[in-house]
């Protein structure tokens, strides 16, 4: 089967599961899904940065798990914001202390510590933000906002794929991603905008078309930047995919690279009050 068919079949299995978690299961299920996806992506990332250092990977996993849990707990008032700030400030000393206990890795201590600091910031913070999107508005609105965020990323990816294949043209950033074109980038923005239109008329009528389109353009653009950022990381590590857990897609990080940036964009838009009509209400 072609790669596109495999990707389609994988999505055919995954989408009903995600919809069930968003609209049928409790909100805690969405937090768990985001947490598990973050952990798998963190393992893939740390495998690229620490290929011969399993102990280092586990240190990064613990740090990422702690940051994710702290951010979610702070939102619900179970952890004070001051302690969250202390915990984040302690990330650097913790990674340096880990290096002191492992002198055999002194020649590569600097890049390894940099990767250990990056994992929680690059993965745990955005995935916690995406998890918290679920807490805005009513139960159905919170689920719809999460679904729309995923549509910004994944419909943008699909629109970019078909526009790039069908139109081609000048390359977008050949030194980072040789196959991406300017036509694909514009097609990706079109896919994200289409997602906002579908959301307005199908499952999220409280989101106006004007707000939806503006948000789609911002989230879609940041999502494409997220895709390029992951491409840099993979090129640096000398790998094609971050993993192989999803047939046709590669790893979890390959699938959420744009979603990380889209989730942050959606959370900031909601938290800032820019999206009128959605009242924050924490639920578990």
Short structural summary:
The protein is built from ten helices and two strands. It has 284 residues and is mainly α.
Distinctive features:
about 280 residues; mainly alpha; two-stranded antiparallel ribbon; 10 helices; 2 strands; globular
Structural overview:
- The chain has one domain (3-271).
- The protein has ten helices and two strands.
- A hairpin with a 3-residue loop joins strand 1 and strand 2 (177-181).
- The model has no long low-confidence stretch (mean pLDDT 87).
- With 284 residues, it is an all-alpha fold.
- A two-stranded antiparallel sheet has the order 1-2.
- The protein starts with a helix and ends in a 13-residue tail after the last helix.
- The longest helix is centred in the last third of the chain and has 29 residues, at 209-237.
- The chain has helices at residues 3-23, 27-49, 54-75, 81-89, 91-100, 109-133, 139-166, 182-202, 209-237, 252-271, and strands spanning 171-173, 177-181.
- It is globular, with a radius of gyration of 19 Å.
List the helices and strands and how they pair.
Elements: H1 3-23, H2 27-49, H3 54-75, H4 81-89, H5 91-100, H6 109-133, H7 139-166, E1 171-173, E2 177-181, H8 182-202, H9 209-237, H10 252-271
Helix pairs in contact: 2-3, 2-6, 2-10, 3-4, 3-6, 5-6, 6-10, 7-8, 7-9, 7-10, 8-9, 9-10
